[in-house]
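User: Batch of two.

Assistant: Item 1 of 2:
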Amino acid sequence: MTTSIKNIEKNAMTNTSRRSFIVGSTAIATGLAIGFDFSIMSEAHAAMGTGTTSMAPLSTPEIGVWVVVKPNDDVVVRIVRSEMGQGTITGLAQMVAEELECDWSKVSYEYPSPEESLKRKQVWGSFSTGGSRGIRTSEQYVRKGGAAARIMLIQAAANAWGVPVSECVVLKGVITHTPTGRKTTFGKVSVAASQLPVPTEVPLKDPKQWKLIGKPVDRIDGVADKVTGRQIYAIDLKFPGMLVANIRQCPVFGGKVKSYDATAALGMKGVKKVVPVGADAVAVVADTFWHAKTAMDAVKIEWDDGGNGAVSSASILKSLQEGLVANDTFVGNSYGDVKAAIASSNKKVESSYFFPFLSHATLEPQTATAKWTPELCEVWAPTQDGEATFAAVIAASGLAAENCNVYKVNLGGGFGRRGAFQDYATQAVLIAKQIPSTHIKLIWTREEDMTHDHYHPVMMCKLTGSFDDKKNLTGLDMRLSGQSILSAVRPWIVDQNKGKDPAVFQGLDASGEAAINYTFPNLMVDHAMRNTSVPPGFWRGVNANQNTLFLEAFMDELAEAAGADPLDFRRKYLTNPRALAVLNAVADGIGWSKPAAPGIFRGLAQVKAYGSYVAAACEISVKNGTDVKIHRMVAATDPGFVVNPAQVERQIAGSFVYGLSALFEEEITIENGAVVQKNFDTFNSIRLSQMPKVETILIQGGGPEWGGVGEPTICVAAPAVLNAIAKATGKRYRTVPLKKSGVKLV
């Protein structure tokens, strides 16, 4: 059977509420997430196995929208963020429980659905997990949700006793009337409390009064099932009569399917159907993944490369190099007169750095399960942004919002891949529409996942520093040349900024959550936008990754040119006391003021990103000029407030794995318009034996802003090690990954 594909019909969005939801969700999508209600269908429970927490029955008292209290005093906290292993669920529940004054041992959680959110006019606020926003952008209203519930429960008890509220106190879910000693529990007054109006004036505790926030309590989602392998992820879902789909998309970005011949595949074991998916893909639907995958290999596809077949890493590099000296730039941060400072300088230092495309490489490839009928479309997805998934399902299904449901399933990794990008969910629906009334689980192969990612943007940077005759830095010029994520993902933001992508300057901004911490006499940071056919996306740390590496590696170069110690040189230009505090903390932790042991070399780096101040220092040794051993890393983080120290420590260590893997091993390259790397044999990650010990220092600067944790520290791992390697070898490596220069981590 040979099929030609010319035009793909687009669904007309005629339903007003459907259209507004799609537009609204797309506008607010930031790689973020919402939870989904698994109680809507009993079969979802069976698919998820044991231990799934779902929406409480309607008969269970709801104390505001954040808290449900059961008659046995169990407290269920509603969480609208996505858990990817980072501990967001636990942190958010801690904040609610802190203000609620309940017994932590009785706390569990549940997920509201995006459909329920739409019905309630988004009463839960932001449903986002990305950009290290899981806690920091919701702490106010989440804490108020817990405090409001406490007020309502105490009021219900006071009403029952006929006493003033001021005479009642609560501790661990037990309400006491102080004058008489009478006691009751949350569970006993929960029904009455649920009938009371939610207070509008809700005072929050002073941080000095916190009992639960700041404590390293155990994770609320548990770890036993993850250790034993019983944890169910989206790729593990099973439904009665379910079929499995495998997909093949045009390997050249922007390409399409010209035609395909499915004759051989249709005759293979277990195969049910071969279907087109959009304009650029074909899928095989079978009874098992293996049958679908082997049949997919038998489908003969003729591709139309769409004109991008000649794109290569070499052509992209040429474009970036041209951008380093071009005049069509956007200024991100500027003061003084850098050109004049450089022209009149006594000494000039100039270097160029390169940072490559990177795949998210989530352990679980892209997957989603969909069931479509003319009346209802349901999708089970491992999403970082449930509302964006919901919008994608509505658009692909052709149904109204009230006829669609999305259920969140545990994510086998996210890192930004499963937030703004909903291709996998859309594809699952498009396939399910062609086999109605059947659960279709779409599973990408690892090769497909790596070939069709939305990659960390490729970027170059040319830096020029100038000195006077006393070796004082007089100016710094930074020219960025490379991709704009927002041009591809949120072009309206670029349009609003007259063609500039403000996110490109993350870590180098003049002010805000990603402001540069240094103050130089003269500064210019600009960007030559050089977009490619390779789709960029939000990759853990986003643009602060490469910007920190560029600046912090160059700071060591400038210090060397000035004949100064790298720490002292940084201190000279650091004006923010919180930035100075984290830098001093890692310097003290690594023992910077004392000579290193023979053969040991040190490096450090700092940045402000996602509202947090972070720094790292390391000790390394190098054998044979290329074999690097990292002995220690010290990390200091000041996020304003620390909700769960144990989780923060794990996040920092995990982010260092990500950052060091990118420094030494990882790169996506392009040939003939397509990705070269297909699996972990060519896109490698560092191993446990290569991972150094990470010593964590947590500083609570007290705000006023709350900073993120999951992404800021990834930015300082690579430049700290890169600086130490330069000290050890006398060579300055300016191209990442280091394997391209023969340098490896041992």
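Item 2 of 2:
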Amino acid sequence: MPEYNLVDEPWLTLRPVGGEPPVQTSLSEALARADEFEGVLVEFSSQLPALLRQVLLPVVVDALGAPRNLQEQGLRLARTGFSDEDKHSIQDYLLTYRARFDLFDADAPFGQAAGLRTAKDETKGSAALVATAASGNNVPLFASRSDADPLNLTPAQATHWLLHTQCWDTAAIKTGAAGDAQVKAGKTTGNPTGPLGQLGVVLPVGRTLYDTLMLNIPHTHPTKVGKPQWTRDPQGPQWVPRAAEGLLDLWTWQARRIRLIPHEDAAGTRVARVVISAGDRLTATPEWEPHTAWAFTAPAKKNLTTLPERRPRRHVQGKAAWRGLEALLAPVREDKPGAFESSVLLDQINALQDDGHLPADYPLQIETFGTVYGTQSSVVEDVIHDAIPMPLLALRQDSDAHDLLLEVAEQAEKLAWAVNNLSADLRRAVGTDPIPWDKGQRPGELVLHGLDPLVRRLLAGVRQAGENDELLERGRLAWEQLAARTAQDVAQPLLDGVPAGAFLGREVKQSGKAGKSVVYSLGSAADNFRRQIAVILPRQADAAKEAAAARIADATPATAPTAGAGLDH
């Protein structure tokens, strides 16, 4: 078997601080120089949390121990890099467990089950590991590649996709492994997705790889740290349903039994065939899972308790991360349906700032990851990834920055609703039904698309403004003025595009209201939209009134109204 040890081989791609070209490094070098790199570069976005949780974070925690309290966490952050003592401890640790990081070891290959095979010695193409590659029944009829075509992965690529599979693999039926007593008819059924597939992953990212590692380690009592998979007995084909035994067990969870089958060709060692079967099943996401926010939902009918259920909050396909700020900025737990709770890590970062371990202007980024599965979670339909700047002051519930950002997110949703309302009123005015909420593209989505860069610019500006109330208030006004203009830009073509009959309008009988009718017309729709904008964005409405009054006082000629007028204040 070829040797490819993750401790020494350059399987990680890192981006140096200062904008220099990316470099390939080993695990040992990446940690030794963690303060010299901005972060890890990956081929596919959802590989990043897999690499951090399955390798980088657990090595650091198992070698150095988890911080036991906030004070110890703050001291580690203040170093801005591993001390010489830390580096020696990490290198000694990697030397101790070096054999367990060999990707193709005959007895204990990293993250795999040695000798894993099916009863008929069947193997699959390596595309079975790759979320972006069609395989099995998912290969399109006229695709350029079929399952018979080899997908040769380098050892580095195979490692990334191996870790990704342990975190995000699809559910449903898996090929049965020889020696697994729970196999029936050569298959195992009821397999859940990988553990990250059941979460809306929230990942804090700092200035350097070192900072990112520190920000993603929750302070933990030593008895709750647990052990990573490479310090346990090597895996066999058997699997069990069980709870996570500590943080490191959760991070290095082996959701699948996998064997990479290497071969040599002119380019070197490659992986084109694999064996994948069922792995350990996590009986429940632990309440201390650090990389997710939480939502409280009404209890199921069969549940006799009146307490709401606390579940990991999933990200919504097509929805920007800033549209979920109500969950990210909710550090205080509220046990009522519809409430949210922030992630353990964001709550900890807020506490670090309160205690003076992080400056208010620290350039924190929040990256979110999720997977949309289809057909009983047996296929990947879409991968969700977004990144937003997060002002630290916004994590404090008593801060103006916190209130401002929650208000902005709410205003954006209401503006989209107002434009959808306008569209519905105009369609009724010409005798057609509104666009169904679950079909087609409603114009409100165009509003949210147009507001997206404005919100991201505002997030960065709030971080720079800090606790300067005057700058924050100027930012509020500028946001409302630009948001109003964006909504009006989407609304104007709707008003301009209606036929002449819309001026007279149509009388529509209201359902459920005996004998009551409402007349919908171009004028009433425009007036209603104008009033909604004024209510949603009160500061820009007041500023527009003051500007109009000033123009009248200065005897500035008014602009003649045009069709659809009334949108500008």
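The radius of gyration is 28 Å.
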